[in-house]
Amino acid sequence: MITLSGVTKRHPGGQEAVRRLDLSVARGEFVLLTGHSGAGKSTVLKLMAGIERPTEGTVTVSGQDLGTIRSGALPYLRRNLGLVFQDHKLLLDRSVFDNVALPLRIAGFPGADIGKRVRAALDRVGLLDRERGDPVTLSGGEQQRVCIARAIVHRPAVVLADEPTANLDEAYALEIVGLFRRLHEVGVTLVVSTHSPTAFGDARVREVALRQGILVRSGEARA
Amino acid sequence: MITLSGVTKRHPGGQEAVRRLDLSVARGEFVLLTGHSGAGKSTVLKLMAGIERPTEGTVTVSGQDLGTIRSGALPYLRRNLGLVFQDHKLLLDRSVFDNVALPLRIAGFPGADIGKRVRAALDRVGLLDRERGDPVTLSGGEQQRVCIARAIVHRPAVVLADEPTANLDEAYALEIVGLFRRLHEVGVTLVVSTHSPTAFGDARVREVALRQGILVRSGEARA
Amino acid sequence: MSRLLREHGLAFQDALRRLGGQFVAAFLNLLVIGIALSLPLAMYVVLGNVSDFSRQAAAEPQLTLFLRPDADATVARNIESRLKGHAAIGRYQFVAKAVALEDLKKAAGLSGIVEELGRNPLPDAYVVTGRPDGAEALEALRSEAATWPGVDHAQLDTLWARQVEAVIRGGRTVVVILGSLLGVALVAITFNTIRLQILGRREEIEVSKLIGATNAFIRRPFLYLGTLQGLIGACIAWGLVMFAVGVLERELGVAASLIAQDGVLRRLDIRDTIALAVLAGGLGWFGAWLSVTLHLRRFEPV
Amino acid sequence: MSRLLREHGLAFQDALRRLGGQFVAAFLNLLVIGIALSLPLAMYVVLGNVSDFSRQAAAEPQLTLFLRPDADATVARNIESRLKGHAAIGRYQFVAKAVALEDLKKAAGLSGIVEELGRNPLPDAYVVTGRPDGAEALEALRSEAATWPGVDHAQLDTLWARQVEAVIRGGRTVVVILGSLLGVALVAITFNTIRLQILGRREEIEVSKLIGATNAFIRRPFLYLGTLQGLIGACIAWGLVMFAVGVLERELGVAASLIAQDGVLRRLDIRDTIALAVLAGGLGWFGAWLSVTLHLRRFEPV
Ligand SMILES: Nc1ncnc2c1ncn2[C@@H]1O[C@H](COP(=O)(O)OP(=O)(O)OP(=O)(O)O)[C@@H](O)[C@H]1O
Ligand SMILES: Nc1ncnc2c1ncn2[C@@H]1O[C@H](COP(=O)(O)OP(=O)(O)OP(=O)(O)O)[C@@H](O)[C@H]1O
Ligand SMILES: [Mg+2]
Ligand SMILES: [Mg+2]
Prior knowledge:
The complex is a heterotetramer, with 2 copies of chain A (223 residues) and 2 copies of chain C (302 residues). Chain A is of the alpha/beta class and 223 residues long. Chain A has helices at 41-48, 74-78, 96-106, 111-124, 140-152, 170-185, and strands at residues 2-10, 16-25, 30-35, 56-61, 64-65, 81-84, 158-162, 189-193, 206-211, 214-218. Chain A has a 6-stranded mixed β-sheet with strand order 6-7-8-3-9-10, sandwiched between helices. In chain A, strands 2-1-4-5 form a 4-stranded antiparallel β-sheet, with helices on one face. In chain A, strand 9 and strand 10 (214-218) form a beta hairpin. The longest helix of chain A has 16 residues, at 170-185. Chain A is globular and about 45 Å long. The model of chain A has no long low-confidence stretch (mean pLDDT 89). Chain C has 11 helices and 4 strands. Chain C is 72% helix and 8% strand. Chain C is elongated. Chain C has a 4-stranded antiparallel β-sheet. With 302 residues, chain C is of the alpha+beta class. Chain C folds into 2 domains: 2-57 and 162-296, no CATH class; 62-157, Alpha-Beta Plaits (2-Layer Sandwich). Chains C and D meet through helix 2, helix 5, strand 4, helix 7 and helix 9 of C and helix 2, helix 5, strand 4, helix 7 and helix 9 of D. The structure holds adenosine-5'-triphosphate (2 copies) and magnesium ion (2 copies). One magnesium ion binds next to helix 1 of chain B.
């Protein structure tokens, strides 16, 4: 599903965020990215989503090389991804509902479908009663859950989530982990970064650990 | 130093974020605010900084009632506070240095002082080498540490920090806790919210727990 | 097809909402565009009126052929036939000596004198009006006609004609300069508005691209917004100019009938209006397109 | 004191940086302001030239007093002394019958006629020029002078004078409308620019307030920015108008000497320039002040 081979990401400043990384995520796998702050977790996820381009090496998603993909085709590839950003990236000038509806509007879903799907997604993160609210009226953890709802509302084949439980206390974190597990069970491919891997500890999850941009440990692939 | 008496915060939507709260923080105390997501931690901190106004009750900081303070005096009161926001609130269009220098510029420090103080603050959070960088080039944890540097650069008497370790792995979280302890030792008053109180566990820290806006537990005051 | 229509409909709604949402600011902006458009438009209307006036008055140079006192009807007919075939001529008029005397009598303070004259000392004459801008052709006709039999002398009011032509040419230069300047201004205003809209919606654009929006999808509402701004600006300009012409007409009073024969000044007709709408809408679209194209680059390769 | 100076210096630098940082956008904005200012300014200059012209030509209505053929020097002196004391009079001129005949000879196509006359049928006359805008006073003088001994009849060119006056009054109305419109436009442009600057710096303003910035601190760079925009716009307008007058003068050629006696059109002098700068800077400041005051409210009570 996703393959990184020999990927190095060097930033203009001279920083090497990721160094000669080989990583392959099979369809239906649940991969946990761990590592200290600045280890390169977010960078790996951005490379997989085509948000950053590798300085060296190739990134392939669903058989398409992101280095050579037509720029017109990238949007359609992205509509199969669900992204949870570390900094949320919620739009503060529109309601929770409209934030979650954004991927559906962009993909051109008809209006009737949108309402149903958005409410289903908000229900899964426990925020159905806040749909008319403004993101600024939400607590940090609530915002994070809206972000998760937006990532899954269009039922993507792949979910890439960057520290989705950072702002959540243990009880909520476990709920989100449960949500990810259910997605995993219905065949969604997941790559999730975290700095508290214990919450995810599970036989079906494969942990990939980074240190200063280098892969230091990689569990076995378990589809 | 800070006193909340009979404080209720009801939002226009009808939500009661905080309910009849009595809390008093003495000069030089280190208070830890805990509670589930949406318990009202951020709201309490915002009330203390005069960012939100209580629906009922009074908030007093350094002897000044925030409900009756002249709006012209509020800025000068705030210059004695150091704030760490849950959503960072870094300015993305200027360098790390300029972000950290902002409180000094606002308070009208002369140029020569600014350089010295900013570098000292960045050093304390381990980001001295990134001073010329852009906040967007920083990882989530690095941004959070810049935010902490900005909160302490002007040596405020009170630090109010909202989940300052949310995006940090354990090692870095411990470093930040150490930094707060040193501030505590030199007499700074600290109120810090967190959803992982274990990292802060210490005899000199007083834990205040909230549940759905209500104070459910409050350790003894230890100045 | 229906999906494309739906997406255009949504983009248009989005543009409308954006205009309506920031009412005061949008209104001020439209006012500025309207004013900017109204100025060359007003100049255009003024020039239209002036050139109507000058066409009927001074811009058409006049040549007067005074006939010899002894010239008879045959000679006159001969001259007339020469004039008829001549390309430089707009129209001509025969002024008999008796008519000329009557005119002289009406002229200021001369009635007494004319009576004292006892007889009519004036000659017959042909007054020839050249085609507009045909001063040079008429000049040539003057030299030629001076040699015709029966013509005493031919007098051309060239200097005045040339001066009025120069004034009108100057006026045209001003309209061209002004029109270009304000065309640039319209594009600049739209460019800036859209630029600031884009900056204000940075996050939205960024997030939309990240979750699969195409460039066309992002562009569309801005292009509608630019075009709409231009069109509404054009409406305002149209209203301002129509209003101003009305005010001017009333202020001028009698003098208006000096300019337009019936005292009604020329206004904007349906063709002017359509041209204005197309031009303003087009310039608005262009400003928006330029802005979107330049500024969306910043969001690459995200 | 030195700290306040430092803070003002920093705010000014901030405003400059902001102008320079978005060069294309700032340039376009300034161009729009410059163009907006240049139009009433150009009208002002044109009106200045026209009123120079009209003052020396037609706006001063003329009254001609034709004397009786038998009037002698005593009668003339009597009339002259009456004229001297009269308030309605700008200046007057005695035109002897011999001079009038010479003038008539020079008039188009009449030289032959005059020679045939044998003797001079023209009377002596006084040509009286009224004060500018003094058409009514002159009208009164006409009725009065008609009864003076020795005056044959008094002829007033009132209609023409009134029409020119109306045209000039119309022109003033246009300048007032235009000036107000474009004053509003300048304020609107500044308002909008500053508004969008504020929106673009939302986070900065919010964070600054949260960490202790006073309202004055936040306001200052915006006020400098508005004033600067107005001033630079004024410079551009000044340049445009000076350039346009030059072009017009060249285009008009001979005709320019019709308007200004020496062929040099009136331009902007130092007082006009200072007034322009003060006005434009002031309007820019006002637009910025309005915008900042209205929009900073949104950040309360944060
Ligand atoms: N655009 C950039 N320019 C320069 N350096 C960058 C850029 N983006 C990331 N980096 C650096 O690359 C390193 C890896 O960043 P990354 O965001 O991948 O870390 P992370 O593992 O997600 O950390 P965290 O847990 O703190 O979010 C960091 O040191 C970061 O500062
Ligand atoms: N402006 C607002 N309007 C309406 N509801 C609000 C507003 N601000 C906060 N709330 C609600 O008040 C409750 C408390 O919010 P608060 O941000 O204080 O929680 P928190 O303890 O900081 O949670 P977290 O750990 O998720 O950050 C939440 O349910 C939140 O949605
Ligand atoms: Mg990260
Ligand atoms: Mg919070």
